Amino acid sequence: MDKNKIFLINRGGLEGRLDSFFYKKEFIDNTDKIEKVEHFKIGNLVTLSNKTWDKTKHNDEYFNYIEISKIDTLTGEIKEPTTLEVKEAPSRAKMFLKLDDIIVSSTRPHRGAIAYISEEYEHCIASTGFIVIGYSDDSIILRKYILEVLKQDIILKQLLQKSTGGNYPAITEDAFKNVILPVPKLTIQKNIINIMDNAYKLKKQKEQEAKDLLDGIDDYLLDKLGIKLPDEPENSIENRTFKVGFDDIFNSRFDSFYNKLYYIKVEEELYKTKYPLVNLMELCNGIRGVTYSSDDEANDGKIGVLRGNNIDLKTNELDLTNIRYLKSDFVFSENQKLQKNDILMSAASGSKEHVGKVAYIANDLNHYFGAFMMVLRVYNEKVNPFFLFGYLQSKLFRQLLMRILGGTNINNLNFNMIKNYKVPLPNIDIQNEIVKEISKRRHKARKLNCLSIKILEKAKKEVENIILGEDNGKS
Predict the structure, then answer these.
(1) What is the pLDDT of residue 236?
(2) Closest by alpha carbon to 336, among 299, 291, 381?
């Protein structure tokens, strides 16, 4: 019996909810820590904005839309907003954002999808899935301090505690207003802002170093293969006008996108390699993933299924932090279980940039992969699977892939579409040499990315200690 799951609450300690989740010991202890220092309910410190967007009065044809998925939960950075036609605006696109607003995801708020609206994002439209913090009094609490304290674990725990719902717990505006914030003196708030700003800056530096290492892999690989990609042309009238002979497009696509001179030059460079070219299907098989519905899912399921979001698009690393689980009686083919040396590929996405992204499976996994994924399983001993993985994430392969996906509305992929793609194949000794170098660079990049996260975690811990320290508010 777990004693941490058994507790008593007096009637006087009830706060409008009777469910045991709300009164878990970790939540009560968390609140007790905050109440030992100067604190206020957030509803007494800020005003929530209810300014909405009327698309019928929007003068432009397009608008910029911020969804919850566009917020980096570690840093609060807003990824590129989605540009949509006004007539195609989703029903949730309603919250009008002003400079200095702070947006907080109301769905699964404990994840930390919280962001500050700078000039770059002023007048964007946000999903109704956000709570928007408008006015606050800078003589009591600084805007950037609100942003940073909301992302602290002591606040995220409160957001989870006050949420309701099953798979996607959400917090209401009224419940959000009852979240308590530690409010130290302004000098301490400014110090906290500086600590976090420095941490974000250092984190970006480490991430850039990692990115440079990963970007250099592509140049290294193509150089070893004797391939030089042509420069992409500027988007000018001259570069959009070209002529292609009928013989060159016989038994092929007739559209102008596929027959761009740039793509023709890319293919020509591929054939200049000093190594033999082998069709992809001579090296591996393509295996499609498992089809399932939401009725097959189970929070306590034992069968893990990987999806597109389990591939880190920046690093091509496997990300196992958000796995979908299915009921234990769901029937799979053992062929659809991930094996050592498999190459997992995203086969469908709302964005062409995500289609064809790959991750290498270093060891057998007790996980399967979903229908919008594909596995390339190497069977030919003449190819090192990691070498093939390196080639499939190269700029060269990406350009060949974009050639068949671009110019159409198709954002999905199957093995038949790429089975005849040519792969330069050096002898196994040269492949192993390439793999060794690529692995070394990826390892260094991984360490830098891990260090960048640790830098942020250390800064957040330092901030929490300052906020909850005995000398808080006295210096």
Answers:
(1) 46
(2) 291
